[in-house]
Write a structure and sequence with these properties.
alpha/beta; eight-stranded parallel β-barrel; TIM Barrel; two-stranded antiparallel sheet
Length: 328
């Protein structure tokens, strides 16, 4: 069997499959199931900034930003007002006692605030790392991109300045200059960038005239967008990249590793197929490495990144002209 181990943000992972933040990692029982299934690391279900603020009387319903997150509906149904921050800290410490793989805490952030002090409590609870799920919908025409981007950087600089454990930024693609912003994010002291967030998307019921959620889960086709950016940035920014969204099988993970990702986060596939999907992904990865004579994952990671592929321009092509030019 090939060596499937990898490093991510300085942490040694037995393999590159990370059980991403979701209800599938929201309890000690589920953490154990993910670990037993073979996950290389686990990102705990996100603690929302609104939940932190509620301790000081902040009303969850008052912040519409909550609904931009794909986890929000699950969050609302599962977390009650009686749930305090101690339960999250307990989940961290209990998970560390029960599993022998890295446990990564997660906070969904929508503003720079005093909540960042809670990050230090997460570190003391024993988390191996912290993932900040950052997104502020650029919906206000009065706020320019520079102001928005500065807020992201301020949050990350504040948190990384407080912690000794590594911090990852889980970001969206909604930046005016994504490559430049990724480089600026890497300069804040983060050790990893997760590409990309997947958000709650509204739909309209044309008969009831009500808003409803569109598809909650990702589809395998959604890998295409993140794959391009992982390949273009993995060799250009000084931090690790974890791929997210669209990884439903081993083939998808292999593509992201070849593009330069150090690991891949799996969420929708866990909801759809259960924790056993992790074993299937790893078996497919092992078979692939054997088929191509790779003995370690280091021979795979980045092999098809923009810095190593024979046709780097293909990653930057955005028009179909050449592809379809000969079709009449």
């Amino acid at each position: 069997m090939a060596d499937l181990s990898t490093t991510y943000m300085g942490m040694k992972l037995n393999n590159p499959v990370i059980a991403g933040s979701s209800g599938m990692t929201g309890s000690l029982e589920n953490v154990r199931k993910a670990a037993d299934a073979g996950a290389g690391a686990i990102v705990l279900k996100s603690l929302f900034e609104e939940q932190i603020h509620h301790e000081s009387g902040y009303a969850i319903e008052a912040n519409e930003q909550l609904y931009y997150y794909a986890q929000a509906e699950d969050y609302i149904s599962r977390y009650t007002r009686g749930n305090d921050l101690r339960e999250y800290l307990d989940l961290i410490s209990e998970s560390k006692e029960q599993v022998d793989i890295p446990v990564i805490a997660s906070i969904n952030c929508v503003s720079p605030s005093e909540w960042t002090e809670f990050a230090a409590q997460i570190e003391r609870a024993g988390a191996d790392a912290l993932e900040l799920n950052l997104f502020m919908l650029p919906s206000d025409p009065a706020i320019d991109s520079g102001q928005r981007e500065r807020t992201y950087l301020d949050i990350l600089e504040d948190v990384t300045g407080r912690l000794r454990i590594p911090v990852a930024a889980k970001i969206s693609s909604y930046f005016s200059g994504l490559a430049n912003m990724a480089a600026n994010i890497a300069g804040t002291g983060v050790k990893g960038i997760v590409m990309f967030n997947r958000f709650y998307s509204p739909d309209i019921d044309i008969d009831s005239f009500e808003l409803k959620p569109s598809s909650v889960f990702s589809s395998p086709d959604e890998i295409a967008f993140s794959l391009r950016w992982v390949a273009m940035l993995s060799s250009r920014i000084p931090c690790d990249i974890a791929a997210s969204t669209g990884i439903h099988d081993g083939t998808a993970l292999i593509k992201q590793l070849l593009a330069g990702a150090r690991a891949g986060q799996v969420v929708s596939a866990l909801y759809k197929n259960g924790y056993s999907v992790i074993k299937g992904i790893l078996e497919e990865l092992d078979a692939y490495m054997a088929r191509h004579g790779f003995s370690s994952l280091d021979e795979v990671i980045g092999k098809m990144s923009i810095g190593k592929t024979e046709n780097p321009a293909a990653y930057e092509r955005v028009q179909f002209m050449k592809h379809f030019g000969g079709i009449s």
